[in-house]
Amino acid sequence: MIAICVFDPAMCCSTGICGPAIDPELVRFAADLEWLKSRGVSVERFNLSQQPGAFAEHPAVRAALESKGAASLPIVAVNGDVKSSGVYPSRDTLAAWAGLAASALGPEEQQAKSASCCPAEDGALLSSAKGCCGAAAASAEPKTSGCC
Predict the structure, then answer these.
(1) What percentage of residues in the chain have a pLDDT greater than 70?
(2) What is the domain count for the chain?
(3) CATH of the domain at 55
(4) Closest by CA position to 38, among listed 116, 107, 91, 93
(5) Whose C-alpha in 15, 48, 96, 128 is 20 to 30 A from the C-alpha of 37?
(6) Among 138, 104, 135, 141, which Cα is nearest to 122's?
(7) pLDDT tens, 97-122?
(8) For residue 9, what are the domain limits?
(9) CB count, 10 Å around CB of 87?
């Protein structure tokens, strides 16, 4: 089984999809990770502010932080091997690392790759973040609460 570990920079919540100014890149990446999970890929995320031990325990992640600092984050490791540093990879890249055929990306999923915050009216695209990015986020009123 393929195991993907994401070592995120310090964020207020596990996905960074919270607060009044949500980064669309984090929304896209969270949706891509959910897509991987739905296809049987093991996905684990670690947040520097909430799980610093995981960063210290992984030798390559620890080395990257020692040499480049927080600029090395996010770090994505596949089966323990670091595959990317400093950027959130695309769904196509994640699919390739997971051994999923590019043809596994249907038309709706291709569109979802570049979608903004939960484009589906019910937030179905990003089911794990409905609390942060459901119908309220789609309204014209900005979200004023803190974290998810």
Answers:
(1) 68
(2) 1
(3) 3.40.30.10
(4) 91
(5) 48
(6) 135
(7) 999 975 555 545 554 444 444 444 44
(8) 3-138
(9) 13
